[in-house]
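Dear colleagues,

I hope this message finds you well. In preparation for our joint manuscript, I am sending the Biotin synthase (Thermodesulfobium acidiphilum) sequence together with its predicted structure, so that both groups work from identical material. I would be grateful if you could confirm receipt.
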Amino acid sequence: MLVQNSNDIFTEAVKVRKKYCGNRAHIRGVVHFSNYCICDDLYCGLRKSNKEMERFRMDEDTIVCLGCEIAQKGIKTVVLQSGEDPFYTREKVCNIIKRIKEKHDVAITLSLGERDYDDYRAFRDAGADRYLMKHETMNEKLYERMRPGKKLKDRLNALEFLRKIGFQVGAGNIVGLPFQTIDDLADDIIFFQDFQPDMINIGPFIPHPQTPLKSYPAGSFDLMLRVFALTRIVTKNTHIAAANTVATLKPENGQLLCFLLGGCNVLMPNCNPFPKSREEKVEFEFQCAPAKRYVDIEEAESVIKKAELQISKDKGHSLKLKGDL
Ligand code: SF4
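The corresponding structure tokens are as follows:
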């Protein structure tokens, strides 16, 4: 189809989602179990140089217990997410995966950053189904500038390896990074088209006051929406999540618009324990973005209903895989 303007892109994105993903949307329950990180990414509040950040690590039992609570609420995917934190050794992560899987029939997604390749293998053998690792930007120079000491090639190789050993693989980018160009975003979309990730997580840049990028403007919501829509068009049946940072950037209806115009079909509510009132301190506060707005399960359900989609009751495995898992 010949896309003339943004409205055409949005109409097409929703049409493509309907054709390839049907009328169901998926909820993945996320446990943010550690906000320690050995990386120093310029855009992230969890970067190791940020000494003002209050850090937490959950113990194994707490993580398993939160994973089980998610399953008991009828959500069939548990996402275990942390900064890159070697405190959680291969053995510890494998135990957590096994303990949740023994108790509940759920899919497990890991989002732990880059690890040793033998770790990936062990996590897969322990029963983890998916691995989410955003590529952040396909501009090599920008990647190295934003992620000191890191190479884009290593990340892309890791994604390839994860796929090779049987993980459903998730990539993703940041829209509106300082120094990013429209061409860079086009390259991200071309990467999505070529790699065809099983899942994609797109989010805006949000300046964190405790990072070197604190005075740069946040990413544009409208531009991000176009990235979502074009990504849906070129990836067809990939699961595409409207990240919680979208809700931070546009709290009123950001995620809903990502569904109504951008062709999203996944939400990933935060399932860490919430305080009973706004005044109470959050015990495990991830805060990679400032004042990050965490959408809970109820709110995620409400967004999906407003988008006139049904909430999927199954594990919502990759639509790119053939046959049963
Ligand atoms: S984006 Fe992830 S890897 Fe980078 S500093 Fe933040 S938590 Fe660490």
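For the figure legend, we might mention the following. The chain has eleven helices and eleven strands. The domain at 24-308 is CATH 3.20.20.70 (TIM Barrel).

With kind regards,
E.M.
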